[in-house]
Amino acid sequence: CSGCFAGLGGQTAAAGGGATSAARQKNPPAFQDFTLGAISLRLETWPGFRVGGELWPSGAILAHALAEGLCELPEVAGRCVLELGAGPGLPGLVCGAMGAWEVVITDREELVPLLQRNIEHNELSGVCRAETLDWELARDSPLAAAKRQAIGPWDVILGADVVYFEEQDPLIDVMLALMTPGVTTLVLAYRERTSADRSYLDSVILPKLDVHRIDVSSERGDCE
Known about the structure:
Layout (H helix, E strand, L loop, with lengths): L3 E4 L12 H7 L3 E7 L2 E7 L11 H11 L12 E5 L5 H8 L4 E6 L4 H10 L6 E5 L23 E5 L7 H11 L6 E5 L5 H11 L7 E3 L1 E2 L2 E2 L2
Parallel strand pairs: 1-8, 1-9, 4-5, 4-7, 5-6, 7-8
Antiparallel strand pairs: 2-3, 10-11
Helix pairs in contact: 2-3
């Protein structure tokens, strides 16, 4: 597969299970307004609803880089974009606001209501939608490249804080299922969490891609 590795920092986060309604009753939602270039977005997060309910730094940095048109990143206007392990979904929302043709923002089932709320908060229902994506079952998903022949391939796939040594096989599974060789650009926003994650990234993920690494510095931290 062709791909792009963008080292845009942050702490690695993964969504977990739980009862959505019970978690939100215990911890009221929080809201934050973002101005990213010419784009204004409101983001709802669910503090305490595992780590997937909150925005982590690399997701914010990737969103800013996309909105500011960092030249090394792929164009998203008019393109088909999917975000993996999105949490609140800020990078995917940015793509929707920037004129992407289709944006699917994905995570585990319990986080889809949060994603849907953020799509609605920003009036992006016409271009963005939230869907459950089980990485281990990605080949059977309607989002798989093989199932999208009538629609067209994914042009850009985003992943912020998705590199976990513990999840290495599922991540490879979803990459291979969704990407179309020679067409899809994979943008990974990553900062090292453990040496095992780094080794997995360097020895397993990146050799499967045509890699372009981007180093970025921002007020939210240095990126590799």
